[in-house]
Amino acid sequence: MKTPWAKLYVLSFAGAISWMGSALTTFAVILRDKDTVGASGISGYLLVFSIPTILMAPVSGIIADKFSSRAVVVPALTIMGLSSLSLSFGWPLWWTPIALFITACVGALVGPAWQAAEVSVTAPEDRARVSGLMQSTAVAGTLFAPGLGGILVSTTGYFWPFIIDGISFWILAITWLFVNINRKPVKHETGEKMSATAGLKFVFEDQLIRSMVILVSVLIIALAGVNVGEVFLVQDELHGNAFIYGVVGMIFASGSILGSLGTATLKLPLKYHARAVIIAIAVLVCAVGLMSVAWHWWVVMVLSFVAGLGNSVLNAYAIGIIMTKSPQEKLGRIQAAIGAVIQTGSVSGIIIAGQAIAIFSVRPVLMVGAIVSALILVVLAPAVLRAGREHRIEESPEFAQPTVQDREPQH
Fold it and tell me: What distance in Å separates the CA atoms of residue 38 and residue 29, rounded to the nearest whole number?
C-alpha cells in the first residue's frame, strides 16, 4: 500500500489551522479568568477538557469502528465550531466550562475516528513518520496561537480568539470532505457483537503497549503541575506579562515542531522506538525539574524549547508503536481506550496540581513532580525497554495491512 502523502499534507495543514484556533481559545480563557477563578479554577477548566475522553471512551471507540470516519468527523467538527463560537457571545462565566465540556465531548469522537482513518491509508513503515507530520503541523498551528492571542487580547479583547477557533473547526470539516480519506465501518460476521471493551483488553494484553501506557499515565500525574502552574510561574513568580507568557508557549511549540520534523524525516528502526520514548520522557523530567528553580522567564523559555523536543519525540514514537501493533478492526476502540487511560492520569494530576499549587505555590509543586517522575521512570522504564526490543512489524503480519473493507477504492 502506498501512503497518500499529498492528501495527508493537505489534511495536516487544515489541522494546523484548527489547532491554532483551539490554542487561541485555551490561551484566551486562561488569561481572561485566571485572576477570577484562581489555580483551582484553571485546573477545573483543564479538567473539562480531559474528563470527556474518559467518559466517552466506550462510546467513541465503538462509534469510530461502527461508522465511517466521514460520518463521525464532519458532524462532530461542525458542533465543535458552534460551541467555541458561543464563547464570543459575552455570556456569564458559568457558560465557559459548559462550552469547553461540549467541545471536549464531541472532540472525543473525532480523535479515534481520525486516527483510525489515518492508519487505514498509511503503509506500516510510514506510520511513525505520518504521526510526526501530523504532530509537527499541529504544533506549528499552536506556535502562532500564543503570540497572536497576546496581540488580539491586547488590542481587541477576547472576542476574536473564539471567533477564529469556531471557524477553524469548520475549515477542517470541509477539508476532510475534500481530501476524501474515509475509513469504512468494520464488518463483522452475522450475529457477532462489537465489544466496547475490546480496545482496553488489547491494550492490557500487549506487553509493550501496556508497559508504555502505564508509564506515561503515571508520569502525567506527576508532571501535571506544568499545565496548571505555568501561567502562575511566568506571571506571578517571574513577573512576565501576557506577551511573555505567550512567547513561552510559542517556544515550546517551536521545540515540538523541530522534534516532530526530525521524527517525520528519520526512519528509526522499530526496535529503537521504545528507547526513544524513554529518552524523551527523561528529557521532559529534567526540564520540569529545572523550571522549578528558574530565576528568570528566559530560563523558562529555554527549558520550554527542550520540553517541546522531548514531548514531540515521545508522542511520535509512542503513537507509531501503538498504530503498528494494533489490529485494524479494533483501531477506534484501542485509540479510545488508550486515550481514556492516559486522560485518567491527566485528570488525577490536574486535580492534585491545582490544589497543591493553591496551598504550596508553583515552584515546590514542580520540583516534587520532577522528583517523583524520575523515580517512576527508573522503576517502570525497564519493562518498556524489554518489550520494545521485540517490536517488529514482521512479528505481527496480521496487523500490518488494512483490510479491504477499511478503505475506499483508490481513484
Answer: 12
In angstroms, rounded to a whole number, what is the distance separating the alpha carbons of residues 326 and 120? Answer: 11
Helix (H, G, I), strand (E, B) or coil at 3: coil
The residue written with cell numbers 511513525 in the block is: 128
- Distances in Å between the alpha carbon of 19 and those of 4, 79, 130, 141? 22, 16, 17, 6
Q: Are 343 and 50 spatial neighbours (Cβ–Cβ below 8 Å)?
A: yes
Within a 10 A sphere around the Cβ of 228, how many other Cβ atoms? 28
The three cell numbers locating residue 272: 529503537
Which residues of the chain register pLDDT less than 70? Answer: 1, 125, 187-197, 264, 268-270, 328, 387-411
Long-range contacts of 377-382 (CB under 8 A, 24+ apart): 377/215, 377/219, 377/278, 377/281, 377/282, 377/285, 380/211, 380/214, 380/215, 380/218, 381/215, 381/278, 381/281
The model carries a pTM of 0.68
pLDDT in tens, 113-128: 888 888 888 887 677 7
Nearest of 346, 78, 40 to residue 213 by alpha carbon: 346
d(CA 208, CA 206) in angstroms, rounded, equals 6
Give the H/E segment covering residue 118.
Answer: helix 95-120
Q: Considering only CA atoms, which of 73, 282, 317 is closest in space to residue 182?
A: 73
Burial profile 54-73: b = 16 or more Cβ within 10 angstroms, e = fewer: bebbbebbbbbbebbbbebb
Tabulate helix, strand, coil % of the chain (nearest 5).
85, 0, 15
Query: CA–CA distance from 22 to each of 16, 40, 84, 165, 391 (Å)?
Result: 10, 21, 8, 6, 35
Please choose, from the candidates 131, 206, 261, 259, the residue with its C-alpha nearest in 3D space to the C-alpha of residue 391.
206
The answer for residues whose C-beta is within 8 angstroms of residue 302's C-beta and 6 or more apart is 251
Structure confidence at residue 404 (pLDDT)? 30
